[in-house]
Design a protein that fits this description.
Radius of gyration of chain B: 20 Å
Strand content of chain A: 25-35%
Helix content of chain B: 10-25%
Radius of gyration of chain A: 22 Å
Oligomer: heterodimer
Structural class of chain A: alpha/beta
Distance between the termini of chain A: 9 Å
Strand content of chain B: 35-45%
Number of domains of chain A: 2
Shape of chain A: globular
Number of helices of chain B: 4
Largest sheet of chain A: 13 strands, mixed
Helix content of chain A: 10-25%
Distance between the termini of chain B: 33 Å
Number of domains of chain B: 1
Strand order of the largest sheet of chain B: 1-4-6-8-10-12-14-16-18
Number of strands of chain A: 25
Shape of chain B: globular
């Protein structure tokens, strides 16, 4: 039987680049003077300025992780941590400069806004250039704005939540983020308000040898609900770009939050992102994650189930091709009784790519009558790729139901034979199996992303098998 | 003592599993004679010419060096042909024999076939020290069953390194009964280098009081159609704690290899703790790898059913634990040893 050969995902729709034009670009490196300059440029309040300086100290003290992908090629002296585009914040696409607007047009953001979103934020390099939300939500008291505006206009709300869910000393790249953060979105959904249509923020990094450090802070108040979508991409350059964003989610009692991400960074990107949610009593946090881009990714969203009856689900897929090392996974800590977690993770490795599923399930002493179920599956599409599964299961009390299962392997010859005996060509049979493998994840994605993901897989499978 | 029993691949330090840090471990400076050894072996060659080697993984440099330089028991067994009767090597600790550092090497020649029982027992509350190494070389077509029985008490330190090499078409089966040791630390590694080589590991562990088990099992599959099966069943009561680190590593070239790993932990008290890290590492496409891991208390319904038949809760619980362990225990053909282990289970669950 001939060999499956699936090339990398076609990235033409993401790889277009604009000229590296900006209003202000800070010099490369990471020093106290640079932090002071960023803070000045952003007109920070005192508490934020102090937090940045403290974070820099923590960054300098902490070491690089001793595990996971090799990050030695990251040289902060070669990264510009703040690039202000030639655009102020707008609430109409007409006012966004043409080249930037064209970028988001090509990515389909304004079109999606019209058809299926309740609000959109668009960040270009280090600043948000567009933010808008439907009036009905505004009338219900929903806040959806860029992070800088939130720091200015909702100081108490921000100050009591900013870097509290993800503390500055969590790890080195969180400290880096806190020192140089810029842009991102702030969402507050008041008690009892159900936001039925998703909000979406899209992050585009255009400038070479730079980093993006957006901060997303979402508070879903008691009894409220929200679906938030995050998208990200960048064109490919020869030198390393860095993404070290931070997402802090507060899912209060009886509320619901779904956080969907499609990460499609270019293959020169180091994606060292941190995402964490604190989940209250009887609240539910759902993560849906598609990880396709980046040269190196280290991304482990985390749910901390602090309230009795809190629940979380993680549904994620990673797709690693040539030169990619995607070290992704999920962490959950059960801290209260009757909490529950369900994890369904998949990965596909091809053309020399490496996928690692790395996870933690910790059921603490207080979390009696909790349940956790973890399933991960890895598909290898050739014999030059690598796939590892590294899950830690830490169970600290007896009244629990915990199970974990994982599988690794290739496309079954028997299944291909069966499908071919039903009249499918070998190519179509294999394509169907890969799509079927990804289906449990793609069906959870927002529809336009699911279609995009399937199209990407189809495109690459067509004519590539033989 | 730092960095004991490291995993082959590290994960986040915050997960507390990469290695074991033990404090206040008393390592005897002088290893005196250990004479309470019973060896029953017919038709095989025994000498003390064990090879000194650096294990691929091992517990730590210090413990490896101690075995190489300071062992008070050395045994090399060369197995040729089929050995009808079980080979028995029993180490019994007592007041006169408190410290054992042994180096055992089993060379199973081509086409050989044998069962070897290695048992360690410390009955009273003597604070014993054990640092052992067991190396098995299973040559082409060899069939070796090693029954490893750790019945140390719960105040001793028990360190064990096992290293195996399995050649073409050889079958190596380990049945491990791991009950003893205040700190019971095991590093087990198997290299399945031959095509069609097989390694089965069946383990039961039972922890009580303040016992800590740190089990680090590593299987590297290199030969085509090689196969590893790990089945680990355990129960923990009181404040016992267990770390299970099981790694199946599919190396490039091990086409059509299979690896299965199943680890289940029964928690018999709300203060018992279980950490598991079942790893699958894969650099070969044409393989099948599965692992599963579970933890929880004995099912209320099952317990209720057994109690409704007239048993008290403790007895019902013992019965359930014995039932869970039964599948592995029945692989021990020696009925006397099996009964002895069952009695030990009952006593430890009292």
């Amino acid at each position: 039987m001939s060999k499956t050969n699936i090339d990398e995902i076609n990235r033409n729709i993401y790889d277009f680049k604009n000229k590296d034009e900006y209003d202000f670009k800070i010099k490369k490196g990471l020093t106290k003077e640079i932090i002071e300059e960023i803070s000045l440029q952003k007109n920070d309040p005192d508490w934020m300025f102090e937090l940045r300086l403290k974070a820099l100290e923590v960054y300098n003290k902490l070491e690089l992780p001793t595990w996971g992908p090799d990050l030695s090629e990251l040289d902060m002296n070669e990264i510009a941590t703040y690039v202000r585009p030639k655009s102020k914040l707008n609430n109409s696409w007409e006012d966004v400069p043409e080249d930037i607007k064209n970028t988001f047009d090509k990515l389909g953001i304004p079109e999606a806004e019209k058809t299926s979103l309740a609000g959109v934020g668009a960040q270009y390099d280090s600043e948000v250039v567009y933010h808008s939300m439907k009036k009905e939500l505004l009338d219900q008291g929903v806040i959806y704005t860029d992070m800088e505006t939130a720091v200015r206009e909702y100081p108490e709300l921000v100050k009591t939540h900013f870097m509290k869910c993800v503390p500055v000393y969590d790890h080195k790249f969180v400290a880096l983020h806190a020192a140089v953060w810029s842009g991102g979105s702030f969402v507050y959904v008041p008690k009892g308000v159900k936001v039925d249509i998703p909000l979406q923020s899209y992050f585009r990094l255009n400038s070479p040898e730079s980093g993006q450090f957006e901060h997303t802070l979402i508070i879903v108040d008691e009894g409220a609900s929200l679906h938030f979508i995050e998208g990200c991409s960048a064109p490919k350059y020869n030198k390393v770009n860095l993404h070290a964003g931070c997402v802090e989610l507060y899912v209060k009692d009886n509320s619901y939050l779904r956080y969907s991400t499609i990460e499609n960074w270019s293959k020169n990107m180091l994606n060292l992102n941190t995402k964490k949610a604190i989940v209250g009593k009887n609240a539910k946090m759902e993560w849906v994650s598609g990880s396709f881009g980046s040269k190196i990714s280290m991304l482990y969203p985390m749910s901390i189930l602090n309230g009795e009856g809190a629940k979380t689900e993680f549904t994620g897929i990673s797709f690693a091709g040539k030169g990619q090392n995607l070290d992704n996974g999920f962490k959950v800590v059960h801290n209260a009784q009757n909490t529950a977690s369900v994890v369904n993770a998949k990965s596909i490795s091809k053309n020399g790519g490496k996928c690692t599923y790395r996870s933690l399930v910790r059921i603490g002493e207080k979390a009696k009558h909790s349940k956790s179920s973890v399933s991960c599956e890895s598909l290898m599409l050739d014999d030059i790729s690598v796939s590892d599964t590294i899950p830690v299961n830490d169970i600290q009390t007896d009244e629990v139901e915990f199970s974990h299962e994982a599988k690794i392997g290739k496309i079954s010859d028997k299944t291909i034979f069966y499908l071919m005996s039903r009249g499918l060509s070998e190519e179509d049979a294999k394509a169907m199996i890969v799509r079927g493998f990804a289906y449990p994840i793609s069906k959870e994605l927002p529809v336009e992303y699911a279609v995009e993901m399937n199209n990407l897989i189809n495109l690459e499978l067509e004519g590539a098998i033989g | 003592m730092v960095g004991l029993n490291e995993t082959p691949v590290k994960t986040s330090r915050n997960f507390n599993i990469n290695n074991l840090k033990l404090e206040n471990i008393e390592i005897p400076e002088v290893i005196e004679k250990f004479e309470n050894v019973t060896i029953v072996a017919e038709n095989l060659k025994i000498d003390e010419e064990c090879s000194d080697f650096e294990p691929s993984f091992g517990l730590s440099d210090f413990l490896t060096r101690q075995v190489n330089e300071n062992s008070n028991q050395k045994l090399r067994l060369q197995i040729d042909g089929k050995i009808q009767n079980e080979v028995k090597i029993y180490f019994d600790f007592d007041e006169e024999n408190l410290n054992l550092v042994e180096n055992i090497e089993i060379i199973a020649k081509e086409n050989s076939d044998a069962t070897v029982i290695v048992k360690y027992e410390a009955k009273e509350n003597w604070e014993c020290y054990h640092n052992g190494r067991l190396r098995v070389v299973a040559e082409k077509n060899a069939q070796i069953h090693v029954i490893f029985v750790n019945l140390m008490n719960t105040v001793s330190n028990h360190f064990m390194t096992m290293e195996n090499m399995v050649a073409e078409n050889a079958q190596l089966h380990y049945t491990m009964i791991d009950f003893g040791g205040k700190n019971s630390v095991t590093n087990y590694s198997s290299d399945l280098i031959g095509n069609f080589s097989e390694n089965v590991i069946d383990t039961i562990y039972l922890g009580k009081e303040n016992q800590l088990f740190d089990l680090n099992y590593i299987a590297q599959l290199q030969g085509e159609k090689s196969k590893i099966d790990m089945e680990v069943q355990g129960a923990l009561k009181d404040t016992a704690k267990k770390h299970f680190k099981g790694t199946i590593d599919f190396k490039k070239g091990c086409k059509k290899a299979k690896g299965n790993e199943n680890e289940a932990c029964m928690l018999l008290a709300d203060t018992a703790k279980s950490i598991a890290l079942p790893m699958l590492l894969c650099a070969e496409e044409d393989v099948e790898g599965n692992h599963s891991s579970s933890a929880g208390k004995i099912g209320e319904k099952e317990l209720f059913y057994v109690m409704s038949r007239g048993l008290e809760k403790k007895e019902a619980m013992k019965l359930m634990v014995r039932a869970k362990f039964h599948k592995i225990l029945e692989k021990i053909a020696n009925e006397g040893l099996r009964e002895y282990i069952l009695k030990e289970i009952d006593e430890r669950l009292d």
